[in-house]
Amino acid sequence: MPRVRGRNRQRDREAGDARSFWDGYELLWAPDQAAAGQRGPLDRALIVQVAVRVADAEGLAAVTMRRIAHELGTGAMSLYRHVPDKDALVSLMIDTALGEDELPDAPSGDWRADLRSLASGMWDFTQRHPWYPEAVMERPPITPHSMAAFEFAISILDGTPLPVADQAAIIITVSNAVLAAALNAAAEARLRARLQATDEEIDHSAGAFFGKILASGRYPRFRDAMTSADRLGPKEEMQMSVELILDGAAARIAAAI
User: Fold this and answer.
1) d(C-alpha 189, C-alpha 175), whole Å
2) Where is mean pLDDT largest: 15-19, 28-32, 209-213?
3) Exposed site from 18, 86, 149, 171, fewest CB < 10 Å?
4) pTM for this one?
5) At 213, which helix (H) or strand (E)?
6) 29 alpha carbon, distance to own chain's centre
């Protein structure tokens, strides 16, 4: 019997976790709950604003209810009257950050140029908010501003003969390419900060290490790639990845005509 009760408690806890997963999203989509977060001198918008500022400076891990309460000069419990938990706060942060930039009124009609511009804008956004790629891995961006952005992105491909499922797949693939590049760039930035070394010092150290591998002659293609004069930076690598995706999209569009 005790074992059964233990399983029941675990099942109830898991069910509660599943329900609470949507708390942050409900705050964004339910006007009555959103209004409830604006009572008194401390409101939800201010909490989220401070959380974004902390994440921009120190990363998502630095965002805790206790830390945000400290920044606001209040107790952590006072935050829970406006935001149920950190997961909900992250969802609110995502939507607030995405709301910074206005979407164009309509696509230009050149789907490739528009998707290229979309990727470039997304890259710039992740450089302002390096925590964003990590955040959307934990909290899918099912928020008003995110849904509006996705709706606009798909509309870029409205004039093509592709079914909407293919259109969505192209948008998601472009988005994932930018997010992956941004994650890599953020990881490199953290490494540089941890080592407290300049780019030149890191490159020199890496050159000494890889030099032995390249000198073996066993990896000629890797050697050519590493020693190529046109090696790309993080943003250029992202742009190349996006161009390859757009090439694939163009081929699929041509095949559908």
Assistant:
1) 21
2) 209-213
3) 18
4) 0.82
5) helix 199-215
6) 20
